[in-house]
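Morning, I've got a small favour to ask if you have a moment. I owe you a coffee for this, so here goes:

…
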Amino acid sequence: MRLEAFAGEWAVERAIEDVRAGRQGRFAGRAAFRPAAGGGLDYREEGTLAFGDGPAMAASRDYQWRDGGGGVIEVRFSDGRFFHRFLPEEPEPADVHLCDPDTYRVRYDFARWPLWRAEWRVTGPGKDYSMVSRYRRVER
């Protein structure tokens, strides 16, 4: 699967388990992968985030998805700093991002493409949570 396969609009549902705080969260919204001026795709997600019975709030995030060569996809923060990389063709695409003192582990699942998911496990002195994001292509 090539980077261009992600282009377009996606519905996103995310389940969050904050172990340290003992609370559950949910995000629901849309993600768009748009062609970037310098090549690759710019990722933008917008939606609502709520924890427990608390009020929902607007939430968004931005990333840059770039061709890392050899089929590798590189994900960068919105300011261009490297975040992680993965090879979609691997049986279990995964990577680790060290952000001292925290560790971010991601695993992707493309087995049911165009339904796919990203699972994050984040640990560190002040963090202990998991997030599972499910993506479904939105037809226009």
User: Anything to note?
Assistant: The chain has one domain: 3-137.
